[in-house]
Design a protein that fits this description.
It contains eight helices and seven strands, in the order E-H-H-H-E-E-E-E-H-E-E-H-H-H-H. By secondary structure, the chain is of the alpha/beta class.
Length: 210
């Protein structure tokens, strides 16, 4: 059954990408496009320590890093940065660059990890956290019914997007300036096609001036 469903599996990371911008999700997971910028490089550094699979006992809990995750029910697969085990209760912790914020798409990602842990281990996972490396602070996330329902809905939306193999429309808003794919997506050109004529005209003008 699991093998038959493999083509429909959704990466947990895709939920964050989709929640941030469906077009970004499609570029990464359909077009296999990814470009680094300062934000993604900082994110890679933030994950460097936790990407290595390690199990160790710390003062407050058993800690597992790089733990593989899956949910047969939702068709999700991925890996947790850190899972702390307080007794028998898992507590997923997602590492992010930058300082503390309240972005919903980060909460979706860590909640999806919790749903996988619940199915894998047969225990309730009521909450987790997002750790911000720059400020060295945590934001605890409570996995209430509304957030869990949003994870389920977003997973289905991502699955539909990936099966359609089509790029959603560009948004061209404040999110774009922070996106590493802006030069691939070209939101300003796609949203305002008249810009293409302007760029072509400017290109030849610059050539004549030189």
């Amino acid at each position: 059954m699991w093998q038959d469903e493999e083509r429909d599996l959704v990466m947990i990371s895709a939920l964050e990408h989709y929640s941030y911008c469906p077009r970004q999700c499609a570029l990464i997971h359909i077009e296999q496009t990814f470009t680094d910028n300062i934000h993604t490089l900082r994110g890679s550094l933030a994950h460097e320590r936790v990407d290595q699979p390690i199990v160790r006992q710390e003062d407050f809990a058993r800690v597992e890093r790089g733990l593989p995750l899956w949910s047969r029910t939702l068709g999700l697969v991925g890996r947790a940065d850190v899972v702390e085990f307080h007794g028998e209760t898992p507590y997923p912790v997602e590492y992010k660059k930058g300082r503390r914020r309240t972005w919903q798409y980060e909460a979706l990602q860590v909640c999806a990890q919790a749903l996988c842990l619940e199915e894998m281990l047969g225990v309730a996972v009521p909450c987790g956290a997002i750790y911000y490396c720059s400020s060295r602070t945590r934001r605890e996330v409570i996995f209430d019914q509304a957030l869990r329902a949003t994870v389920v809905q977003t997973t289905e939306a991502v699955r539909t997007l990936l099966s359609g193999q089509r790029l959603p429309a560009a948004v061209n808003d404040q999110r774009c300036s922070q996106c590493s794919l802006i030069d691939t997506c070209l939101p300003d050109v796609v949203v305002r096609p008249s810009r293409i004529d302007h760029y072509q005209a400017t290109l030849f003008t610059i050539g004549e001036e030189e």
